[in-house]
User: Fold these one by one.
Assistant:
Number 1:
Amino acid sequence: MTADRAILVFDIDGVVRDVSGSYRRAIADAVEYYTGGAFRPSAIEIDSLKSEGVWNNDWQASFELVCRYFEGIGWNRSELALKYDELVSFFQSRYRGPDDQNWTGYICDEPLLLSPAYLESLTVGGVAWGFFSGAMRDEAAYVLVGKLGLNQPVLVAMEDAPGKPDPTGLFAAIEQLENLQGLAKNLPVIYAGDTVADIYTVVKARQLQPSRVWLGMGILPPHVLNDAVRCEAYAAALIDAGAIAVFRNVEELTAARIWDLVK
């Protein structure tokens, strides 16, 4: 095994699992429900909101889309009888299902975007890895432990840190990896994510800890891959936000490619 020479931290949604038919579907469901069926945002409209770089939390994104719809037809936000907690409950009833103890919702059908063999190849290649996600811890564990079969992976989730683009959670994931694996404290860090907020997280981390090498890697989410124009626009937004490179799938980010990027 090669001595660890870099740290790779993954976002989960859109990188490890395809959420186009789950989280994003739940966003559309919630917005449609709370606008009385008047507005169901398209994938492009959801992408447009997320390209602002501050709507990583899908509950907040749903709430914002509802508010903007009503503002667009002449209402003020202060006039809306919209309750955030109720919207969250509705969202979760779609994503997890109506029974929170026995999930049957959209989460059950999320395709995987990487394999355990890929993660093992990173380990063999000298790349330490972990996860920093805006997903709730049990929802992240559903894919990491339940589907990928990982044993106690390093994971910083929604409950553990402020939302992105605040880099606190990224710092926490790195610290856990350093402590658990005895890593040097100055290894280059790569964060792989599929949104502008993910890339902004790396930019902010670099501003706060400029002595370390920080690289943001953009990953194109599956819902844009079949449209060349959308792919190009989505990749451009990630590059504009500060991504060093953009990949169609995270498994293209091999250990060898990482060494090319950090050397």
Number 2:
Amino acid sequence: MTVEFGLDTILHQRIIDKCMSVYRDGHFHLAAFESMKQVELALKEKSGTNDKLFGTRLVDTLLGSGKSIKLTVPLGDELQEQAKSLFKGAFSYYRNYTAHDGSKIDEVICIRIMVLASELLDLIAASSISFEEIGGAKGLIERGIFDKESQISDLLSFLSSQVCPGCFDGLFEDLCERGYTDHQYQSVFDLGLIEYKQEIRDYSLPGEPADLDTFGWFELTPLGQTVLNKNQNI
């Protein structure tokens, strides 16, 4: 029995939006190239990197070793190297060929490339970003996550003043109003500058039934305190 799938059911929405009109017009090599370009753009958008990196160099930076923002694949750290090989192979074989020639890309090959690009886009979406290997506070500045170290200390100072219950009510709105991004918030935790801690507390009065609730707070680590002290001239 033959099972048929429409392309719209198996392709990533981004590929449908950016490539299908070109594909339907019969420009198969252009549709194939655009699909791999969308993978490259998605990698940059996910990581927030502003480096002028492309193709395999971009993959090596995000999935390889060295001081950088890292893309962590969802199936486990032990498959990180295999994920890098998957992306590098796709870029080396398909992206480079479609960018510089593409004359042998027919309809069938184009569909295969768009399906592969869809799989890579799904993998990017399911992956997470880590700042653990970016190279400390200095690396955050060099990579453009923060403009200067005083921004890091200001964020640490603000977070360490927040306590729960209630600390998460409007927290991210406050961070946004102060000009901080989700990546900046995540980075200070990934680098071990601050931790979130919690404990169960009894808020009942003497003689009343227990009124238990979770109390949480943000606490600077010794490393985070050092960064804060440095910028407060302590």
Number 3:
Amino acid sequence: MLDNLIIRAEEPADYKNTELMTMRSFYNKYKPAADEHFLIRIIRQSKDYIPEISRIAEYNGHIVGAVYYTKAWIVDGDVTTDVVTFGPLAVEPTMEGNDIGGVLMRETIKLAKEAGYAGIALMGEPNYYPRFGFERGAKYGITDEQGNSFDALMVLPLGNDFSNVKGKLIESKDFEKLEDKERLAEINKEFPKYRAVKVQEGFMQIFEQHLGVVESIEDDTYMVRYWELLIPAKFSQDLDKTPEVGSDVQFLWNHKGESEITKVFKNLLE
């Protein structure tokens, strides 16, 4: 954990900086550009928002992380169990590898439990959230609203009687406002314009890997531009194409050792 990392409630003066950090956190990660900064505006205005357990992370006067909680329900016929869900969980991309997301999760899980919520349910990264105690919803007979079960649907029981909870996870209907692309376009005018890209064979759906551009080559080390950082990386011997200056690459960022270029893209579409 970073020394002097402050976890606190968000204040109105933080809104714009938190939105920019959130946009950067998700930019080109799961789709071209991002809409998570729009999502947190929707959440703040929702009657289902729970600011009492939502938190931001501040480091040296800068917002470097945030997580937002909303009400959710697990419905089985006439039986409804009140739970909470969260998202987005955002971390400033240049500060990754410092457990900021982990600190936010541990603190807000504690707050949710102290507030008396039965559990936390979410759709998220199945390779990340189990470290905080989350389990597959299928273990409890919990599905999405359409009755589907998959690894990304997870739950964390907070009460003693969660074994009796089952049914469909219902989230706030306010999330449907995220489909308003015209409103998103208006909001985007308030922020810096970054390069939105799409991998030719599909969207970037990767975890712990990143998209960067080779800025220079020094012997067998490739200096990869990732936001404001230059990250030295080797390239995997399995690659059939050698990176060049200007190449778009996918790389595994090893914060404690040697980073590795794992893919060279032939064409990224604007």
Number 4:
Amino acid sequence: MAIGLVALVVLNATTGSGRLSAAVAFAGVAACLGFAAFGRLGRRGAVVLTVDSDTVYLGNERNGIVSRPLALLESVSLRGPAKETDPMRGAADHDLRITGQRFLVLGFRPQVDDHGVEAVPAETWRVGVVHSDPAAAEVVDRLRSVAPEAKPDPTRPDPRQGDPTQTRPTQTGPSAESIRTDEERPVPPSGPRIVDAGSDEAAERLWEEATRRHDEILRDYGAYELAPDLLLRFPAVTDVTLEPVQEFQLALDEATALRTDRYPGSRARADAYQQAVAVLRRRWIACETNGKQIKTSYFQASDQADLDRALKLYNHAQSSTAPAEQATYYGRVRDIVTTMTDRGVLHPPEPAVAELHAVTRRAIESRQEP
């Protein structure tokens, strides 16, 4: 604006042409307004942080959005405000702080694939949030209900604690939080609920989505029940003596009991089933994640060696084209599994054992054919 006015004065003093002066002044003012509008209306990259029933989504509009399993979230803390803005320049940069805003520090455990290989390493994300925004506060509450608050560094004094040399009253009993059971702990919301659906058609669609997720979990778990190689590689996924497996089995029984062949018509019944499936999905993710992480490490060294040898024998049998070799390898695997089961060390699902006996029998029969 000032540029246009200065140009108008100068041109009037030098040229005396009113039309030329007006045109130049108008162009200067228009350019200034254009730059100002671009600065206000130009597209700006936004930081994204959201969560659904089992996934956390993070990133920005410039570099894209990534997802991480909610079950791998192990710590959450709110810090700041940030002193600078980091634009997340690359895929490996997990810093999304915004100047003047508080930010969440999210810690994720590493992800492992079906072979037990670390697919995504442990990560720490710093994501700017406007905590006064109700939507942002809801996301923070969801994350905190899943993962504990990150503990401060014990080597750094906390100014809120005052003088550490002064004596303080000691707690004589467990806190209320420490004695709460898993059922009493808050459960993160699992998306739109059937009971709140705006119409019967919407409620039925949500019920159908719950049945689809239920079937998906059954297929995933069924793979571990039927595949002997998965039993040998990840026995903890189906070991009923382990707590994550027990919790999954209880959730599976609950969801199965509430499932009906058709939409039940009662929203309360349908909603109860939907919420049971949401719990089941979280329990399954926790169960599978735990099993893939610990693999066979909870066995004694000699038992770990037996399982490793059995897995190698099974793979040799799978790759062999000679029935005699297959029968020998499968038979040795069966003997190892049977011995460990009889000792009470291994707790395999019956379908996996039945499949192992079946492939052994087929190999023996093929060897005996003329």
